[in-house]
Design goal:
The protein is mainly alpha-helical. The protein has a single domain, classed as Growth Hormone, Chain: A, CATH 1.20.1250. The longest helix is centred in the last third of the chain and has 29 residues. The chain is globular, with a radius of gyration of 20 Å. It starts with a helix and ends with a helix. 58% of the residues are buried. It is a multi-pass membrane protein. This is MFS transporter.
């Protein structure tokens, strides 16, 4: 079982690194390869793969419960590999858009990996492994933009997609080592047939969790599309520094997940989500008011602490509402909610950045995260 878990996490990291390192540089790619007039469309291009994933993830999840979760996981890796190759071959803005759309339609490695783990892990251990998977994604978000930023001077970033295709391609091959079937004791099923968590988990329904996931995603992803270009204009910061700061909150997840995770469990997950959402809001507020690097870095650190706790809470709630028989559908819907949130965030970011300023999306993110915190607390009273 340990080998199976290791291969699943390693394969996801490779795919996540490839998928998550490029979005902060879409504006740079558009300006470098196409007309400078396409720069204002960065947020829309950011939205394309997430929109496609929002539509396809629940469908892939439902299919996985029928054809086998392992087969679905391999499909997701190879689909991502193919889409990266197509994206790297783009010669027009429309071809670039098509490649990004394929990434969303054919990918879905995060949901597929989580569903595979849910098929043979009990509730508490599943929650822990979901946090490990989240750490894999955070590592990719931290290391990816920082590394790509080093290649931003004098290099055509569009061609990097060819190299990135190697990661999910190899992951798909390695996954052949996974067992075709894994037996799961009946005791590993943690939610009842209604899809509602047991009383110890705060009796949160899966549908409520999907809504919380979507809203938290909107509140954080709103700041992604124009982060690099905002810092370049507001603080005259290089792409390399901006890439490193972009990844800072995600790097903190790796440091703080274990100590914070000791205090987040099924019984207090909703409270934790509310309070860490508020802390994320405070970090964003400090960033939007920052006029120097130390203040901005402090805001990113607060944001990192808040995001870590919030993701751990969501993982605990996800594990508490999982049923073995429909694990693929459950995680497909959860990731679909995440992607729909990212879609809405990209649309809002584009509209606000082009009509107002690059900091306008951050102000809206603060309002949404504050609202989420207040709503969850009010529902618990």
């Amino acid at each position: 079982m340990r080998q199976t878990i290791f291969i699943t996490v390693l394969g996801h990291f490779g795919a996540a690194f490839a998928a998550l390192c490029m979005p902060p540089f879409y504006a740079h790619i558009l300006q470098q390869n196409f007309s400078s007039q396409t720069l204002v469309m960065a947020g829309w291009y950011f939205t394309l793969p997430t929109l496609a994933a929002a539509i396809s993830n629940p469908l892939w999840g439902k299919l996985a419960d029928r054809i086998g979760i392992r087969a679905s996981l391999i499909r997701a890796h190879w689909g991502l590999c193919l889409s990266f190759i197509v994206t790297g071959m783009a010669r027009t803005p429309w071809e670039f858009a098509f490649g990004l759309t394929l990434q969303g339609l054919l990918g879905g490695t995060f949901a597929a990996s989580n569903a595979f783990l849910a098929s043979f892990l009990p509730g508490k251990r599943l929650a822990t492994l979901l946090s490990v998977m989240q750490g894999s994604a955070r590592t990719a978000l931290f290391a990816g933009p920082a590394i790509i930023g080093l290649f931003s001077d004098g290099q055509n970033l569009l061609h990097i997609f060819f190299y990135l295709a190697v990661f999910p391609g190899l992951a798909g091959l390695i996954l052949y080592l996974l067992p075709a079937k894994t037996s799961t004791p009946a005791a590993h099923t943690i939610a009842d047939n209604t899809g509602t968590a047991p009383a110890g988990a705060g009796a949160l329904s899966a549908s409520s969790l999907y809504r919380y996931q979507a809203l938290f995603t909107i509140g954080t992803v709103l700041t992604y599309p124009y982060f690099v270009i905002d810092l370049a204009q507001r603080l005259n910061m290089s792409a390399a520094w901006a890439g490193a700061l972009f990844g800072l909150p995600h790097a903190l997840f790796l440091v703080l997940a274990w100590p914070i995770g000791r205090h987040v469990n099924f019984s207090n997950a909703q409270t934790a989500l509310a309070r860490f959402s508020a802390l994320t809001c405070a970090g964003l507020l400090l960033q939007v008011l920052a006029n120097n690097l130390p203040l901005l870095a402090t805001g990113r650190i607060l944001m990192g602490v808040g995001m870590t706790g919030a993701y751990l809470a969501i993982n605990a709630l996800a594990a508490s509402t999982t049923r073995k028989a429909s694990a693929g559908q459950h995680f497909g819907k959860l990731e679909g909610a995440n992607k729909w949130g990212a879609v809405m965030a990209g649309i809002l970011a584009s509209g606000l950045a082009t009509s107002m300023s690059y900091t306008a999306p951050i102000w809206l993110a603060c309002a949404l995260l504050a609202g989420l915190s207040i709503f969850i607390e009010s529902k618990r009273l």
